[in-house]
């Protein structure tokens, strides 16, 4: 029983959202010795898209003390493809660090359960209804209880609890509009399929309406999706649109011959946005709650890991120094977050607006330095001083904060 006269707080930190960002922040803060509550509105395991990981997530995976290789397919790199011209360009990514193609449901569950192993109090099927972050503490109301904590971390994904509460969500209009996707299994043997599963590469065919992802998973399964950037044809719905593009692709026609669709066709819209209210008095947002980008460069979980770790480290300092109520606690770290987010944002904008695949990627073999710079960004090595392509992206267009 808490002695409210001595300690008016139930927890040092309440983390809302039990996806990769929330589980990471909660675990790291518990490792520091703080009393942490992790609230998840759903139940693990649950389906989630976003299976392709970036190598520079590895240092945070190591801090979390988990083995992400178990049952997952090692990922070597990314292959960008234009089937109309038969052009391909391979970028090696796992040179200095390893990464994997993972199935999100068991992976997210592992992260959530790992938080509990480090002492985090974890609740599932508990939805936060309201929060109030004041100078003297944070009050949280859920559908099951009330809590008072010293700090709140918003890891609610695209629900963006604090961003929507503070009206801080700003859409990014010129990227992908929506994604439609499904899973297949029993991928038959063949030269193309065998090479895909041997390498673990993600394939990214570019098409007139956007792009397709082809992600190999353990057990000869594929995650396949279409991201639409242009207006959808009016004569079909999203599911029919996906089928049209799968049928029109010689590569996918080959890969999917004899395969079995094992998941419903799903659609995700309300795509890219920034959150102008990423931190404030006794709260901070991480992962998709801080901002979400078109997934063409697989940055989602990577930005979740890195933003969550950065916030956890800073909250620990704030709690230890008694400065957790400082509204500018995360100002310095937010500059680093924006460097990573805006690099990826501008990279994706160039993918759509500047035809970067044809004008840059397919020409990269002629310039080894350029190819290395592209691979560095695709691997998630974003906080460096010597990537000329990154510097060019950031100098060419200032992205909104």
From TrEMBL:
<dbReference type="InterPro" id="IPR006905">
    <property type="entry name" value="Flavin_halogenase"/>
</dbReference>
<dbReference type="Pfam" id="PF04820">
    <property type="entry name" value="Trp_halogenase"/>
</dbReference>
<dbReference type="InterPro" id="IPR050816">
    <property type="entry name" value="Flavin-dep_Halogenase_NPB"/>
</dbReference>
<dbReference type="InterPro" id="IPR036188">
    <property type="entry name" value="FAD/NAD-bd_sf"/>
</dbReference>
<protein>
    <submittedName>
        <fullName>Tryptophan 7-halogenase</fullName>
    </submittedName>
</protein>
């Amino acid at each position: 029983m808490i002695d409210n006269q001595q300690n008016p707080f139930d927890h040092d930190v309440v983390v809302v959202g039990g996806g990769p960002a929330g589980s990471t922040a909660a675990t790291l803060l518990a490792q520091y010795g703080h009393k942490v509550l992790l609230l998840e509105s759903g139940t693990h395991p649950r389906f989630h898209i976003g299976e392709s990981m970036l190598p520079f997530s590895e240092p945070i995976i190591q801090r979390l003390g988990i083995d992400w290789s178990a049952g997952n397919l090692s990922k070597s790199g990314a292959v960008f493809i234009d089937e109309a011209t038969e052009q391909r360009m391979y970028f090696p990514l796992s040179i200095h660090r390893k990464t994997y193609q993972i199935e999100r449901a068991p992976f997210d569950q592992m992260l959530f359960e790992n938080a509990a192993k480090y002492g985090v109090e974890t609740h599932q099927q508990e939805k936060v209804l309201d929060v109030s972050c004041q100078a003297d503490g944070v009050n949280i109301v859920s559908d099951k209880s009330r809590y008072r904590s010293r700090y709140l971390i918003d890891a609610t994904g695209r629900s963006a609890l604090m961003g929507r509460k503070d009206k801080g969500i700003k859409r990014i209009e010129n990227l992908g509009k929506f994604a439609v996707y499904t899973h297949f299994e029993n991928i038959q043997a063949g030269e193309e399929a065998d090479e895909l599963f041997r390498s673990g590469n993600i394939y990214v065919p570019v098409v007139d309406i956007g792009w397709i992802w082809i992600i190999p998973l353990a057990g000869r399964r594929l995650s396949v999706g279409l991201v639409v950037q242009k207006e959808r044809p009016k004569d079909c719905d999203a599911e029919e649109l996906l089928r049209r593009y799968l049928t029109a692709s010689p590569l996918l026609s080959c890969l999917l011959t004899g395969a079995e669709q094992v998941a419903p066709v799903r659609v995700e819209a309300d795509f890219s946005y920034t959150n102008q209210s990423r931190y404030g008095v006794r709260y901070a947002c991480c992962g998709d709650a801080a901002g979400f980008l078109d997934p063409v460069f697989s940055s989602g979980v990577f930005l979740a890991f890195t933003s969550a770790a950065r916030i956890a480290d800073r909250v620990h300092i704030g709690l230890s120094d008694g400065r957790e109520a400082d509204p500018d606690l995360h100002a310095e770290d937010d500059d680093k977050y924006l460097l990573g987010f805006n690099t990826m944002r501008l990279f994706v904008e160039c993918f759509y607006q500047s035809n970067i695949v044809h004008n840059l990627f397919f020409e990269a073999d002629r310039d080894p330095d350029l190819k290395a710079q592209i691979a560095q960004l695709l691997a998630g090595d974003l906080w460096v001083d010597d990537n000329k392509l990154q510097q060019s992206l950031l100098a060419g267009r200032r992205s909104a904060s």
